[in-house]
Amino acid sequence: MKPVHDILVSIRDLRVSFRLDRTTAFEAVKGIGFDIPVDSTVALVGESGSGKSVTALAILGLLPKENSTLGPDSRILYRDRNLLQLAHGEMRKLRGCDISMIFQEPMSSLNPLFTVGFQLIEVLAEHVGLGSRQARTRAIELLREVGIPEPETKIDAYPFQLSGGQQQRVMIAMAIACEPKLLIADEPTTALDVTIQKQILDLIAEVQKRRRMSVLFITHDLAVVGEIADHVVVMRDGEIREQGPVQRIFEAPQDSYTQALLLCRPQLARRPRRLPVIDDFLNRAPAAAPDAPERSRGLRGDEAIVIEVRHLGKSFYSREGLFGKREFKAVSDVSFKLAKGKTLGLVGESGSGKTTVGLTVMRLHEASSGQVLFEGKDLLAMPPGVAMQYKRRIQIVFQNPYSSLNPRFTIGQILMEPMQIHRLGSDEQERRNMADALLEKVGLPGTSFFKYPHEFSGGQRQRIAIARCLTMKPDVLICDESVSALDVSVQAQVLNLLQDLQDEYGMSYIFISHDLAVVKYMADQVMVMNEGEIVEIANSDEIYLRPQHPYTKKLLSSIPRGWRGPRESPIAPG
Amino acid sequence: MLAYVVRRLWQTVPTLLGVVLLVFFLFTWVGGDPAYLLAGKISNPEQIDNIRRQLGIDQPIYVQLWIFIKQIVSGDFGVSWATNEQVSDIFLTRLGPSLTVLVPLLVVDTLLAIAAAMLVAYLRGSLTDRMVMIGCTVGQSISILVYIIVFQYLLAYRLGWFPVQGWGNSFAENLFTFSLLPIIVGVIVSLAPDTRLYRTFFLDEINQDYVRTARAKGMSETRVIWVHVMRNASIPIITNVMIQLPGLLVGAFLIERFFSIPGIGREVLLAVERSDFPVIKAVTVYVAIATMITNLLADLLYKAVDPRVQLK
Amino acid sequence: MTTATSHAESPGLWVLAWRRFRHDRVGLVSFDIVLFFVALMAASWTGLIASDWAREVGVSNAPPTFTGPKVASARLEHAAAPEPLRRDKSDESAAVDPLAGVLAEIRASRPPAAADTEIVDPLADVLAEIRGRSGSASADETRAATLIFGGDKWGRDVLKKTIKGTETSMFVGLAAAALAALLGTVFGALAGYYGRWIDDFFNWFYSVFTSIPYLLLILSIAAVLNQKGTMTVILILGLTGWTGIFRLIRAEYMKHKVREYVQAADAIGASHMRRMFVHIFPNVSHVVLVQLSLHVVLFIKSEVVLSFLGFGVGVDTVSWGSMLNEAQTELLLGNWWQLAAATAAMAMLVTAFGLLTDAWRDALDPKLK
Questions:
Q1: Which of A19, A403, A422, A460 to mutate to test the interface with C (most CBs of C within 10 A)?
Q2: Which of A57, B51, B61, B217: CA 20 to 30 A from A458?
Q3: Residue at A363 is within a domain
Q4: By CA distance, what is C341's nearest residue in B?
Q5: Is the backbone of residue A331 left (phi > 0), alpha (psi -120 to 50) or beta?
Q6: Could you tell me if B279 and B242 lie in one domain?
Q7: Which residues on chain C are in Cβ contact (under 8 Å) with A418?
Q8: Domain finish residue from B44, B74, B104
Q9: C366 pLDDT exceeds 60?
Q10: Could you tell me how many CB contacts below 8 A there are between chain B and chain C?
Q11: Domain count along chain C
Q12: Structural domain of residue B57, as residue ranges?
């Protein structure tokens, strides 16, 4: 479509390695090459550790000098100049002017002690040399362009006074202040809620078209890529697996890894009995046929009820003044029923109170009001000693696999501890046997028993956390964002494991997530929460097809859908 | 703002009460009957009786506590057991010399430490950085006593550049003649630990995301450090300086003692040697009050530097 | 099933930290130096070495061997001239009990009813010893003209005194730091873990202790206790020095108690004590270790100052502080060796401890989260 000579940046044989200590080095990028054409969006996709962010930092010359080295033949050509060999002063003139960048965490990326205006004017003063009056006027224009309401007053606001989405808009305003030719966006929406993500993606696309600049969009999320990119570069372990126009990558991926990335992620439209995992593709094993029977979800209404929650409320108090307290209602008046052997999905954005519901139901947080009926008895009203017996039967798998296992315990200790506390099994030997059996069940080798958590990957740790819950043979498992921190390919494996365990043991799940596609795949019934309240609760197919509440509709329309065929061409010039 | 100050002062009441109780407990229960302690200092039994009556030794404990609290509130701690001087007079006359030495010391030390720390933070990982850090570690490991003894011996006693010790009558003479060597020694002693500390403050900030943003915007390294990093690092630096402030009132015991500066620190040492309880009690309580006031000042100062701080 | 077969237990975080530490050459050398000092302390404590430090083996102020014997006249002018910098404390060689007269007076003036309670002269024992020593010393036949590192006023070997001083100062530093770390850790754990009124209480306690400047607090307590001795110094330093550790440990516990592994321990039914000390403590123990070693240095320095001022260890105990006290007057006579020996020993140990702390901090930094 675009002529070949319209190349803005071309990267050739880029190698970056980091020195870990005196003797060992780690090669993060292993000789990659790709081009960024003029006036287009290139997406750099990969899972964690693929080297995508390192590549971005290398373009701007922002790699830490102390411990990083570039390959001798590496070149990053921008307008026939090799950026890697540019003098420091020259490079600095390009940064923020010709090439600018926005980052993942807008809050920490803005200096907390200076106003938005100060940080914006700083760029204008440095690169354009505007006087203070003009610079301020220009800054207000920029803020208006990126959709900050009341830019005349917001220009004097400090970053902490803005929402996460507004902070990212300010970052974008700073990045486009000097009419850059290339905008590098490093996971700019990963830290944001799905509705805000949608707005920011739209803004980036809009700015890109209006200013006819190029965007290098770095992300782990293929669904986002499909929405925004013209070209796609797929990276893994510092190498490029595949690159090409977005349509070809989505419709006819050549590389097995790309295929895996596309299919491992649960999709709204389909619900296979088992998600394909990455090994299926890499080993060229027969992939799940697209027309395989799908799993049907939903409640008929006559299922046995395990837990009934009535009017649950949880308030947090912050001290104010001398004796004053301020109440913050994290959860108010939440009621639902959990059916035996079924999964209840709990969806909401950050701060919606979904995690608090999970923790309160199992008494990890003390509830402020309401009842949790478990086998007809109110769990919340029991004295702690009695509750212990019931608490054992409700277990939880947390979000962060890196902090949910005690780093000073071996896997053996982690698995044996609950059995020892609850005197499960007649002696140590029997407990040991049970632990070994569970390790096998979650797909880990028996030698894991003597290892420490730090020797395992995120996905493996999540399996260990699941095994720990299973030692107590729970009736209910609460999965609090349990797969959100995992890479797509690992996510599918853990989801499959959870499904297998439910099928085998008949456990009920409360599946808490911000990821609507994952919830759609896992849940029979979906409950949508906003600001501590339930806005809608229905069978999952029902809620995705016919959402009733406006908030649910907004949430669903914000989900990135991936590639949906060719988009309309950019606005014609002039 | 005013409401905040009032509320903060109100909040210090429990702490202050704690200090009063601590001091009272120490001096009444642990310290015991002053008669025994004063045996060597005051030979007149009438005078000792007088003191016992003044403290209410024969009275129940709560009466003694009440007497102590009345002393604090009225500021009248009676007279020194050793010199019969009014305790409040001792304070007023000794404060000046202490501040004459310690204010310049704190200012010079802070400025030098910030400059040095910024330089080594800028050159982090270089040979200069490592040499300065090793120098600081070794310098820090030598006792302050050695610095004082050696400097006094070499610079004053042997070379005669400074007076060995003493104190004059005019402020200028005190500041520019008698205080110079004490200030130099004080700066040398505190420079090493402060430089190390401030360096870590700067390095903490240099690794923050906003610094990466500033570089990505094309800001020069000088501007990154002097504008972006400096403002953020100034918050912990202010904390550190404010912590040292109450110490100014007590003075640097050792420096004052060695150089015969008639400050509060020297007075405290004398009082400890003579078991002169009224003086020690008064100093302890008032310095504790001063500490709380500086804490409040520090909070107000944070407000000026850090917009996120809400005075509520 | 196969517990008997040799299973390869994986390295835990402490083992990994030790492996990292072994690559740190500066840290290792510092570690060796600290170990050497600890060995010295132990040997001196058990009497293996320097047990005869009090013997007056050389002439008064014997210079170090490498400078050769002192030419008596060369220093005479200086020796005669100096006006002492500070009022001399009671001159021990005269050994007059400064309290004797006072005590006699008190005993006389006390009402007869109280006469049965004995008033003990705190200095009596010490003085008896000093008197005995100066008596026997004069009987000594031959005294060396020079000693390896010189001698002090009474001709005692400075090297042995330094070893003895190392024993005292280091023991005070280690013991006081252990006490402070214990208090700080327990208080910090309780406050940080439980929060609410327990936290309020310990915070109040903390703010009371920190609103009085550290040295002033120590001096006040010293004034009140009015008794010297190694144990007293350890108690004073330990009981006042816990505040810094408390604050850090409290913050660590607040951070860890909301971590998911602790919540998971709650979910499996682990008790509060178990969560506090079996689950959380091993994860904050590296902070305690680093703080412990920082406080050893701090307390050694404080002990030196206290003993120098005469509020520290007893008159009959040698510490680096009391050596510096003597050295101060000696320096005016040009006798620098006692000053040099105490300073060098202290600088070496404290520097090594400082570098070791840094190395530990680097090695223990749990990057493996």
A1: A403
A2: A57
A3: yes
A4: B146
A5: beta
A6: yes
A7: 268-269
A8: B74
A9: no
A10: 134
A11: 1
A12: 2-74
Percent of chain C past pLDDT 70, that is, above it, reads: 72
Give me the CATH number covering residue C289: 1.10.3720.10
A-proximal residues of B, 187-226, CB under 8 Å: 208-210, 212-220
Residues of C whose CB is below 8 A from A22: 23
Structural domain boundaries, residue C354: 21-58+152-368
CB contact under 8 A, B212 and A97: no
Tell me if B81 is assigned to some domain.
Answer: no
Q: What is the pLDDT of residues A401-434, one digit of tens each?
A: 888 898 888 898 899 999 988 888 888 888 999 8
User: Does the distance separating the beta carbons of A364 and C266 come in below 8 Å?
Assistant: yes
Enumerate the residues of chain A whose CB falls inside 8 A of the CB of residue C1: 432-433, 436
pLDDT tens-place string over residues C208-264? 888 888 888 888 888 777 777 888 889 889 988 899 899 999 999 998 988 889 988
Does C221 contact B26 at a Cβ distance shorter than 8 Å?
Answer: yes
Q: What is the 3-state secondary structure (H, E, C) of B164-228?
A: CCCCCCCHHHHHHHHCHHHHHHHHHHHHHHHHHHHHHHHHHHHCCHHHHHHHHCCCCHHHHHHHH
Kindly tell me the number of DSSP H helices and DSSP E strands found in chain A.
Answer: 21, 21
For chain A (574 residues), the mean pLDDT of every run of 10, in chain order, is 68 88 82 90 88 90 84 88 87 89 89 91 87 88 88 90 88 89 90 86 89 91 87 91 90 86 80 79 60 72 86 82 71 89 89 88 87 87 83 88 87 90 85 90 87 86 91 90 84 89 91 89 90 89 88 88 65 38
Quick one: which of C336, C300, C335 has its CA closest to C321? C300
ipTM of the complex: 0.82
Q: Residue A178 in contact with residue A213, Cβ under 8 Å?
A: no
Asked whether residue A26 is assigned to any structural domain, the reply reads no
H/E element, A343: strand A343-347
Residue B44: per-residue pLDDT: 67
Which chain C residues have a beta carbon less than 8 Å from that of B291?
210-213
Residue B305 sits at the chain A interface (C-beta within 8 Å): yes
Contact A392 C265 (CB under 8 A): no
Minimal-distance CA residue of chain A relative to B302: A113
Retrieve residue A280's tokens.
């299926």
> What is the 8-class DSSP label of residue A406?
-
pLDDT value, residue C44: 84
Is the Cβ pair C226, B27 closer than 8 Å? Answer: no
Chains that touch C (3 or more CB pairs under 8 A): A, B
Q: Which of B2, B10, B6, B4 is nearest to B312 (CA)?
A: B4
Question: Rounded distance, CA C366 to CA C369, Å?
Answer: 6
Q: How far off is chain C from A430, nearest CA to CA, in Å?
A: 9
Task: Count CB-CB contacts under 10 A for residue C262.
Answer: 23
Min Cα–Cα distance to chain A from B210, Å: 4
Q: Summarize pLDDT for C176-192 with one digit per residue, the tens.
A: 999 999 999 999 999 99
Assess A92–B contact: CB distance below 8 Å, yes or no.
yes
CA distance C18 to chain A (A): 15
> How high is the pLDDT of residue C90?
40
> pLDDT by residue (tens digit) across B198-232?
998 998 888 888 999 999 988 888 888 888 998 89
- The one-letter code for the residue type at B36 is Y
Residues B245, B105 share a domain = yes
- Assign C317 a pLDDT band (cuts: 50, 70, 90): confident
Q: Are C368 and A454 in contact (CB under 8 A)?
A: yes
- Taking the C-alpha atoms of residue A255 and residue A244, their distance in angstroms, rounded to an integer, is 11
Domain membership of residue C131 (yes or no) is no
Identify whether residues B100 and B39 lie together within a single domain: no
CB contact under 8 A, C350 and B18: no
Residue B228 sits in a domain of what CATH number? Answer: 1.10.3720.10
Least confident of A546-555, B39-48, B110-119, C305-314: B39-48
User: In the prediction, which pLDDT does C131 show?
Assistant: 54
